[in-house]
Design goal:
Blueprint lengths: L2 H25 L6 H26 L1 H26 L5 H24 L13 H23 L1 H6 L3
Helix pairs in contact: 1-2, 1-4, 2-3, 3-4, 4-5
Length: 161
């Protein structure tokens, strides 16, 4: 196994950690504890995932340069959502929701672009759909979740993690 394959294996493992920890954090009650612990795992794994994606993309630029752009953009969303919460920006909860869910859409997009053609039913779609399907499904979810927490302003006071 050469160094590229080692980094790729680490990258795949980190991607699985991101997808699983992100889902657990999304589904957990929005309070200190499970949500925040899994959110920290998600953010840490995402930072390492982005770093390995950038390394892999630079290594085989002519084949997978797109991975560099997905990594930079998606991790940018993750750090935006993370810092909004950590630094308690004005309306931090809206920024947090947009950033974290947006970064999750980025992770799912990268997954589909790379293995979508081997997923039953999805493999019947044109490969261009792998680039847009996560955003088409995820963007309304960001809006719905953001609206839910905006409507209930007292929730942001309850979320004191």
């Amino acid at each position: 196994m050469d160094l590229f394959e080692v980094i790729l294996s680490i990258h795949i493992g980190l991607g699985m950690i991101c997808l699983l920890s992100g889902m657990v954090s999304m589904l957990a009650a929005k309070k200190k504890g499970r949500h925040t612990r899994w959110g920290e795992v998600y953010h840490g794994a995402y930072a390492a995932l982005a770093a390995t994606a950038i390394m892999l993309a630079i290594w085989k630029w002519s084949e997978i340069a797109y991975l560099f752009y997905i990594a930079v953009f998606s991790y940018g969303l993750a750090i935006y959502g993370y810092l909004a919460r950590k630094q308690k920006w004005k309306s931090w909860l809206q920024h947090h929701i947009r950033g974290m869910l947006g970064s999750y859409i980025g992770a799912v997009t990268a997954l589909l672009v790379n293995i979508g053609d081997s997923i039953p039913l999805l493999n019947m779609l044109p490969s261009l759909f792998y680039w847009f399907l996560p955003t088409i499904i995820g963007s309304p979810l960001i809006y719905i979740v953001g609206r839910r927490y905006r409507k209930n302003a007292s929730v942001s006071k309850k979320i004191s993690y």
